Each structure stands twice: as C-alpha cells, then as structure tokens.
C-alpha cells in the first residue's frame, strides 16, 4: 500500500477516534475574479504551513471564473475539496463583442489575449456550437478522393471539389480513414483537368503518408475515402458558419435565424487545459475532491499548428512507417507490418501522479478535445454522476497509451508499476455528443489500466466507439488486468466512423469482465468505406483472458479479430434476460 493511501485511511480512522480534536473543515468562500481560486489554494497552504490542521473546503459561488492560465493543484493541496454552487463555471473562454453587419455576414474584431493574437478552432453563440466554415452542410454530400500517391505525399480529388478554395492560403482537409479522421493543412494544388493534385504541410504530410493504418482508401465499389474542406472564408455560405482571419484578427459569422448579434453571447476558447492536478510519483496529490463544478470552453490547437494524423482513439502519430517484409512476433501473435509512436491529445482537465482524486456531480461541456484525463501514476479515485456534452474528443480518458518513446505494438510493463492507472472507478455518468471534432475519439477510453471499473454509464451520440479498453495490438501479458466493464447503456454510436463497436477491447487483460451491458442503435453513415464493418461487441488484436457475458444486443453482430488465448464468450445477444436490458435503461431514465 502506498504512503499516500495509507495516510488517507489513517486520517479517517483518527477522525473517528478523536472527533473534535481531528483536523476540521475550514470553508474558504470564493467569488469570480482574477486568480481567486489560486489565491484560495494559497491561503489554505499557508494556514497549513503555519501549523493549522485543516481540511480546506473551497466553495465557488455562482458565476464564471475566467482563466488566463490553468489552475494547478499540487501535493500541497492534499485533502482539499473544491465545491461549486449551482452556476459555478470554470471557463477558458473569451467573449467576442462589437459585431457589425457586412452584407450577409457579421464581423467582429478579435481582441489580443495576454498580449498575443488569439488562435482558436471553436465558437459558441448563445451556448450553441457554431460551425467552422466548410464545403458541405450535410456530411452525406462529402466528396471522395480519386487516388493516392504516397511517394509524392499527394491526394488526387475532383477539381470541382476544390474550386472555391484554390486561392485560399489556410484551408484544411478533414479526411475520413475508416476508424479515424486526419486533419491536413493544405499546402498547394495542381489542377490536372477534372482532377487536382493536393499536397499538404509538414509534419502531418510525411507522417500521414508514411503509415499504413489507418490510410486513405481507394476501393473498386465507389467507397473511396470521403473528405470535407474547412477554414476558408470562401466556404462561409450557410447560417451558423464562421471563419477566423488570423492575420487580420477578424471573426466572420453568418447568424442563424433569430440570432441578434448585438445581443448575442459569443465565446471562443483560449486555453486547452483549465485544470491540472499534478503531483510527482513520490509526492502525489492525495484525497482531493471536486464537486458540482462546470468546466467549459477548452480548445484544441494541434491541428492548426501541426496537423493531426491519428493512429486510433485520438492518439496522434509522431512517427510511423511500414515494415517490409513483415516480422514475426513472440507469443503467437500474427506478423507485424508497421511501427508507430504516438502522442496524447490535450485535455480540459488533466491529472498525473494522484491518489484518490475524485469528481462528482460535475459538468463538462463545450470542450474541443479530451474533457477529463486520468493519465499516469493514478491510484484510485472516481468519476461519478458527472455529465459530458458537446465534447470534441474523448469524454473520459484513463491510463497511459504508452510513453512517446514506446512503440505502440510492444507490450507495456514498466518497472515502476505505480505509473499505471489502477483502481479508478468511472460510474453513473452521462455522456452525450462526444468526438464531434476528432471523430476517431470515444465516449470512454482506457489504455494500459488495472482494476478499472467502468460501470452504469450512459453513452450516446458518439462519432466512433462507446467504450474502448486496452492498447497494444499484442497478446503478451503486460500492465493490463482485472478490469470491469459492466451495466453500461451504449446507444446511438458510430455517428461518423466504422470499424467500430459499442464496446471494444485490445490486448491481454487477465481477469477482465465485460458483462451485463446494453448496446444498441448504431448509426449508418453512407460515406464509410465498408458499410457492413460495424459491431456491437469487438475484441480486437491480442485480446486475451477476457470474459464477455450476459451483454444484451439486438443481434449477435460481434467480431473477434486476431484474438489471443483465454477469452470466454457466454450468453450474449437478444436472448439475454430482458431484466438486464430494462435495468440498464431504467437506471439512466431515473437519473436524468
């Protein structure tokens, strides 16, 4: 048992024994204002340094706490509770005002932010997300690529598709690739009759065309990879769309019906991370609780700066390439045809080196990347009764997906097992409208985790997979074990991508159970490259020692792809007791 957890247990025992002589709650009230939360944390630390034995409760009164830098909780903030009155909002947003009409559009000056031009990729009008100007309003109308030349790092597309942006300098292509989308900044065009060669900026161009999976698809049945174009003023032609001229710092918007821009509340996000809970491996942040707080308006800037070429689950590739000829791997795994190294997306709330840090009754909304991320050196803690809505990436992410120096297909078993996310509980949360910026993200994603409990959550309207657990594409036992995915209700998933499932696993996970979940109501987008390649349950490469039982699905549409040994499948499908289905659905109907 680690020292921090032992201290938590001993503190609780002493409180029962000595009663009033134990440390006491001290409430510090906070009103919205510059650095007021930071000042409250400093007050609590100073009181402790002066010998006061206190359990600080920082109470945020209703209002918007606008940040200019992330709030940071450190080891010195042990056993702090931060609680919010109804209406307490921690925001990374900047208000845009001074709108004036310019033909069909309205324009506003974008203020400098902390002495720098403000860069952003999202905008909300009266709490509703606006659309970054793009060439299609209906994704079913997306164009498809014609061919790919990887050696020249070039895509060939219909010339009609790019006529509007031939003279735009900062347009982007969002390219559909089976289980991911790539965000590629367009460098140039060469018109070749009815086809046009499109090239892209570095580094994403090199990474994107070097790796084999995922890849732009060219098929014989007309299901070539679809794409849409964005970030060009010439594409701003529909109500609800906007364009940011970064050089001129002008923001253009075409209002929706009924929107009065003189009175509208317009927000753009300035910060990627609103809160960091950051200890060290030997001095973790212990026993912190966050309750009843809304986290809102966090951005995602990587695609604007470096592009975004993901591998899976939102993890972007830093380097990747084919292996020719393929190589054999130990342990009976099938041959390996590529290598890749990944980085992790930004998060609105990010935790590292923490013990028993928990969130309850919090709200995460209008976040452009990951909302809540329990990353490395995680022991215990919980996320309970929280809601997640309008999330651009993954709603809840847990565990390492390997350090950036670790090749993605190798088993991961660090010498210091404290690094592994262990004992986290994700329970009774409501996730709706996730992965709406990076379609390849998830409702709940877990990488190299042990003893994680993902139970009784409802997940809906996600672009890809509801719950994904595991990593590595490898059947050798490693850091993962003893995980539980139970009683979750997953519906209306795969809104934009396929090669997906309601619940998806990777890698060897001894004593792991996927049970009593309800998975139903998958979307059927017409532009995916293989319209039949979707599943309710999916144990992918290397999945081993996992029990899948008593899960209710409308049909037995499952995939077991290149699995390892020790898996057990029992009683899954429409024959499962109806009480399991009713219980899962009713549980969420009564908690909404």
Walk me through what this model shows.
The structure is a single chain. The protein has 592 residues and is mainly β. Helix content is 10%, strand content 41%. It has six helices and 55 strands. The strands form nine sheets. It has a twelve-stranded parallel β-sheet, with helices on one face. The longest helix is centred in the N-terminal third of the chain and has 16 residues, at 3-18. It starts with a helix and ends with a helix. The relative contact order is 0.10.
Summarize the model shown.
With 592 residues, this protein is mostly beta strands.
Defining key terms:
ten-stranded parallel β-sheet, 41% strand, 592 residues, twelve-stranded parallel β-sheet, mainly beta, single chain, 55 strands
Topology overview:
Layout: H1 3-18, E1 24-30, H2 36-49, E2 54-60, E3 63-66, E4 71-73, E5 81-84, E6 88-91, E7 93-96, E8 100-102, E9 105-109, E10 124-125, E11 128-129, E12 131-132, E13 143-144, E14 147-149, E15 154-158, H3 159-162, E16 172-177, E17 180-192, E18 195-200, H4 204-210, E19 226-230, E20 241-245, E21 250-253, E22 266-269, E23 275-278, E24 285-286, E25 289-291, E26 294-298, H5 302-306, E27 310-312, E28 315-327, E29 336-343, E30 347-352, E31 354-355, E32 358-360, E33 363-367, E34 370-374, E35 378-379, E36 382-384, E37 387-391, E38 396-398, E39 421-422, E40 425-427, E41 430-434, E42 444-446, E43 449-450, E44 453-455, E45 458-462, E46 467-469, E47 484-486, E48 489-493, E49 500-505, E50 508-515, E51 518-522, E52 534-539, E53 544-549, E54 558-560, E55 568-570, H6 578-591
Parallel strand pairs: 1-2, 2-5, 3-6, 4-23, 5-25, 6-26, 12-20, 23-30, 24-31, 25-32, 26-33, 30-34, 31-35, 32-36, 33-37, 34-38, 36-40, 37-41, 38-42, 39-43, 40-44, 41-45, 42-46, 44-47, 45-48, 46-49, 47-50, 48-51, 49-52, 50-53, 52-54, 53-55
Antiparallel strand pairs: 7-22, 8-9, 9-21, 10-11, 10-22, 13-19, 14-15, 15-18, 16-17, 16-19, 17-18, 20-21, 27-28, 28-29
């Amino acid at each position: 048992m680690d020292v921090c957890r032992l201290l938590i247990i001993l503190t609780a025992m002493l409180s029962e024994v000595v009663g009033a002589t134990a440390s006491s709650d001290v409430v510090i009230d906070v009103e919205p204002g510059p650095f007021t939360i930071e000042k409250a944390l400093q007050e609590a630390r100073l009181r402790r340094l002066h010998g006061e034995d206190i359990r600080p409760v920082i109470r945020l009164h209703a209002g918007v706490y606008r940040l200019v830098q992330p709030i940071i909780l450190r080891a010195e903030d042990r056993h702090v509770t931060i609680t919010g009155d109804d209406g307490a909002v921690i925001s990374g947003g900047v208000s845009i005002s001074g709108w004036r009409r310019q033909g069909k559009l309205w324009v506003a000056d974008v203020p400098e932010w902390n002495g720098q031009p403000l860069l952003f990729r999202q905008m909300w009008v009266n709490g509703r997300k606006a659309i970054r100007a793009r060439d299609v309003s209906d994704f079913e109308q997306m164009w498809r690529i014609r061919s790919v030349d990887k050696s020249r790092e070039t895509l060939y597309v219909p010339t009609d598709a790019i006529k509007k942006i031939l003279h735009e300098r900062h347009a982007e292509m969002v390219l559909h690739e089976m289980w991911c989308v790539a965000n590629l900044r367009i460098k140039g065009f060469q018109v070749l009759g009815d086809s046009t060669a499109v090239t892209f900026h570095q580094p994403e161009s090199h990474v994107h065309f070097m790796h084999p999976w995922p890849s732009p698809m060219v098929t014989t049945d007309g299901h070539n990879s679809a794409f849409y174009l964005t970030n060009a003023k010439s594409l701003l032609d529909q109500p609800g769309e906007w364009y940011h001229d970064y050089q001129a710092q002008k923001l253009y918007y075409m209002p929706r019906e009924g929107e009065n821009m003189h009175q509208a509340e317009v927000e753009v996000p300035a910060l990627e991370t609103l809160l960091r809970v950051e200890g060290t491996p030997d001095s973790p942040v212990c026993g912190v609780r966050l309750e009843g707080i809304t986290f809102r308006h966090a951005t995602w800037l990587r695609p604007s700066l470096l592009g975004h070429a993901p591998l899976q689950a939102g993890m972007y590739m830093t380097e990747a390439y084919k292996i020719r000829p393929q190589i054999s791997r130990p342990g009976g795994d099938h041959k390996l045809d590529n290598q890749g190294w990944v980085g992790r997306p930004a998060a609105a709330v990010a935790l590292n080196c923490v013990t028993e840090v928990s969130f309850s009754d919090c709200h995460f909304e209008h976040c452009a990347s990951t909302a809540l991320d329990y990353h490395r050196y995680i022991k215990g803690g919980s996320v309970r009764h929280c809601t997640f809505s309008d999330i651009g990436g993954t709603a809840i992410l847990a565990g390492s997906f390997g350090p950036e120096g670790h090749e993605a297909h190798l088993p991961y078993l660090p010498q210091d097992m404290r690094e592994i996310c262990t004992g986290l509980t994700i329970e009774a949360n409501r996730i709706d409208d996730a992965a709406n910026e990076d379609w390849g993200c998830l409702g709940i994603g877990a990488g190299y985790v042990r003893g994680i409990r993902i139970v009784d959550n409802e997940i809906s309207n996600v672009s890809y997979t509801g719950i994904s657990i595991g990593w590595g594409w490898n059947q050798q036992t490693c850091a993962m074990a003893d995980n539980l995915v139970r009683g979750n209700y997953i519906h209306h998933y795969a809104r934009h991508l396929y090669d997906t499932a309601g619940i998806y696993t990777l890698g060897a996970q001894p004593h792991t159970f996927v049970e009593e979940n309800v998975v139903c109501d998958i979307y059927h987008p017409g532009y995916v490259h293989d319209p039949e390649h979707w599943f309710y349950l999916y144990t992918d490469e290397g999945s081993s020692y996992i029990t899948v039982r008593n899960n209710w699905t409308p049909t037995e549409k499952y995939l077991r792809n290149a699995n390892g040994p020790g898996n057990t499948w029992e009683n899954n499908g429409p024959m499962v007791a109806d009480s399991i289905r009713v219980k899962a659905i009713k549980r969420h109907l009564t908690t909404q």
